[in-house]
């Protein structure tokens, strides 16, 4: 059985039609888990109605809006299928891709990701900030996720691993990338949203980006160490110059002591901050309690 997880928020206008379209594209037995992420309209009533008509549709309702990432995680926890597909409710994730995703999964891939052929009707500003975000993320965390989306198929083994993640603020795409497994990437054209508006404001995207970067890398904490080294080198050069000036008798009275003191204290503070930063970074990594490693197969052991 294939499970499909769909987070929804305030989608009353299109949801019924969209879910029907999605169902038409699923070539085998399925269940659909609709996670209502604190909708303020009649979305939940619509979901209940759909579930009454079709027993394969399951609704999960949040007590308030917890965000799409949380909705995806909650959805995964409620699935029973051998593979799980996560997708948006607005048909921007082309349902035509589902049969091909399932085929790839049957060939043995554990994760099938659908990437955008090209970003459709996105402002230059959006495209540039998305590009910048993925570049920073790749530099800091080593995860290459350019053009990645939340439209994915995951094998049960992968889903079970992801459900073990207990981090409060989780970046779904990053986690799927992080757990590894054999992955296949399909490219599809992404359409524009036909009904309703995007549920993301710039501020929430910015928060998501910051959360993604900080939860996949503590490099920023190591920045103090880096700046400290630069300061220290500058301090040595300036220190030598000051002492030379003093010896040659061209230094102002008392100035040498002040400059040297400043340099010594400055470097010392930076150095201490760097040490603290490194330990805080380690504590941060440990508190996430991520698995040390993930085994995908064991061979030849009975
Ligand atoms: N969504 C959600 N919670 C939110 C925001 C969005 O569950 O806080 C859902 C939304 O209903 C849709 C999907 O996430 O099914 C993608 O949202 P949207 O199409 O608005 O985002 P965009 O396509 O602009 O990235
Ligand atoms: Mg959308």
What does this entry look like structurally?
This protein has a seven-stranded mixed β-sheet with strand order 3-2-1-4-6-5-7, sandwiched between helices. It is built from ten helices and seven strands. Helix 1 links the parallel strand 1 (2-8) and strand 2. It is an alpha/beta fold. The protein has two domains: 2-217 and 292-299, Alpha-Beta Complex (Spore Coat Polysaccharide Biosynthesis Protein SpsA, Chain A); 219-287. The radius of gyration is 26 Å and the shape is elongated.
Write the SSE topology.
Blueprint: E1 2-8, H1 15-24, E2 30-36, H2 43-53, E3 57-61, H3 68-77, E4 83-86, H4 98-107, E5 111-116, H5 124-141, E6 152-155, H6 156-163, H7 172-179, E7 183-188, H8 202-216, H9 223-247, H10 255-287
Parallel strand pairs: 1-2, 1-4, 2-3, 5-7
Antiparallel strand pairs: 4-6, 5-6
Helix pairs in contact: 5-8, 9-10
Bound molecules: uridine-5'-diphosphate and magnesium ion.
Uridine-5'-diphosphate (UDP) is lined by residues 7-9, 11, 37, 65, 67-68, 71, 88-90, 92, 193, 198-200.
């Amino acid at each position: 059985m294939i499970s499909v997880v769909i987070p929804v928020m305030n989608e009353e206008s299109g949801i019924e039609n969209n879910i029907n379209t999605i169902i038409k594209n699923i070539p085998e037995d399925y269940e659909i888990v609709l996670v209502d992420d604190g909708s303020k309209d009649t979305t939940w009533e619509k979901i209940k109605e759909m579930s009454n008509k079709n027993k394969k549709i399951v609704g999960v309702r949040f007590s308030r809006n917890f965000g799409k990432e949380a909705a995806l995680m909650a959805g995964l926890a409620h699935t029973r299928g051998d593979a799980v597909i996560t997708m948006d409710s607005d048909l921007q994730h082309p349902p035509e891709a589902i049969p091909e995703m399932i085929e790839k999964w049957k060939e043995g891939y554990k994760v099938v990701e659908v990437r955008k052929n090209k970003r459709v009707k996105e402002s230059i500003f959006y495209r540039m900030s998305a590009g910048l975000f993925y570049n920073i993320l790749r530099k800091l965390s080593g995860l290459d996720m350019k053009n990645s989306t939340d439209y994915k198929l995951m094998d049960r083994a992968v889903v079970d691993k992801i459900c073990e993640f207990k981090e409060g603020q989780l970046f779904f795409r990053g986690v799927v990338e992080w757990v590894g497994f054999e992955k296949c990437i399909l490219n599809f054209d992404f359409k524009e949203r036909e009904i309703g508006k995007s549920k993301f404001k710039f501020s929430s995207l910015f928060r998501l980006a910051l959360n993604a970067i900080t939860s996949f890398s503590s490099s920023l904490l190591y920045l103090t160490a880096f700046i400290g080294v630069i300061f220290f080198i500058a301090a040595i050069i300036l220190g030598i110059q000051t002492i030379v000036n003093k010896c040659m008798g061209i230094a102002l009275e008392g100035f040498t002591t002040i400059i040297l003191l400043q340099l010594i204290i400055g470097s010392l503070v930076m150095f201490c901050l760097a040490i603290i930063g490194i330990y805080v970074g380690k504590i941060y990594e440990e508190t996430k309690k991520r698995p040390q490693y993930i085994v995908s197969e064991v061979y030849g052991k009975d």
